[in-house]
Amino acid sequence: MPVDLSLYLVTDSTPAILKGRDLCSVVDEALKGGVTIVQYRDKTSDTGVLIATAKKLHQITQKYGVPLLINDRVDVALAVGAEGVHLGQDDMRFEAAKKLLPKDAIIGISTSSVEEAQKAIDDGADYLGIGTLFATPTKTNTKSVIGTAGTQAILSAISDSSVGTVAIGGINHSNVQRVLYQSKFPKKGLDGVAIVSAIIAAEDPKASAEKFAKLIKTPPQFA
Ligand code: TZP
Ligand code: MG
């Protein structure tokens, strides 16, 4: 079954974003609101905590029949039987991850240029995370904010491919329709949007996800 990338939640465990709430409860709420895929992203916890948290998250995502991907860490994905991984340009190479993971595992790759996108497609990636779309406080050490122009350049260059595509970076309720539907992405559109703070840091993560799900399904007036 093809993966539904339309409302892709990326987690963040930093206290400022979680505001004292439990990550698993926040993710559960977001899933109730309609998130279609979850990536567990945690750059600071040690391996024991990563595995324990990923296990809990997996129990939750399984309740909703939604895939769980692990950011950076193929070993953690294997340890908990997650559905796949998301790898950046500096993480384990695609070929190595492919060898280690089950045959049907989902592998997504972060890309910020046409060259990186083309390479990921040639390798056999299931989807591309394209960004950083808009500058965001959630990831300040990003090497590249590519904007709508950079995203458009990638989508145009790969329009013959059936690879999945999600944009990431600074996506919120106000810009999500523009991001998904704007005429700048004429040939190959995005399959979804990847969101951190607009859901995880939201006062009501379920309501936020519901609002995104509704906006995603609705072509905007200006389209
Ligand atoms: N990669 C590029 S931008 C980003 C990541 C992980 C963070 C996006 O966070 P937000 O809060 O949705 O802008
Ligand atoms: Mg990474």
Tell me what the structure shows:
It comes from Penicillium canariense. This is Thiamine phosphate synthase/TenI domain-containing protein. Residues 7-199 form the Thiamine phosphate synthase/TenI domain. In the N-terminal section; belongs to the thiamine-phosphate synthase family. Helix content is 40%, strand content 16%. The chain has 10 helices and 8 strands. The protein has helices at residues 15-18, 23-32, 47-64, 74-80, 94-100, 114-123, 147-157, 176-181, 197-200, 205-217; strands at 7-10, 37-40, 68-71, 84-87, 106-111, 127-131, 164-168, 192-195. It has an 8-stranded parallel barrel with strand order 1-2-3-4-5-6-7-8, surrounded by 6 helices. Helix 6 (114-123) links the parallel strand 5 and strand 6. The longest helix has 18 residues, at 47-64. The model has no long low-confidence stretch (mean pLDDT 94). 4-methyl-5-hydroxyethylthiazole phosphate is lined by residues 10, 131-132, 136, 138-139, 142, 168-171, 195-198.
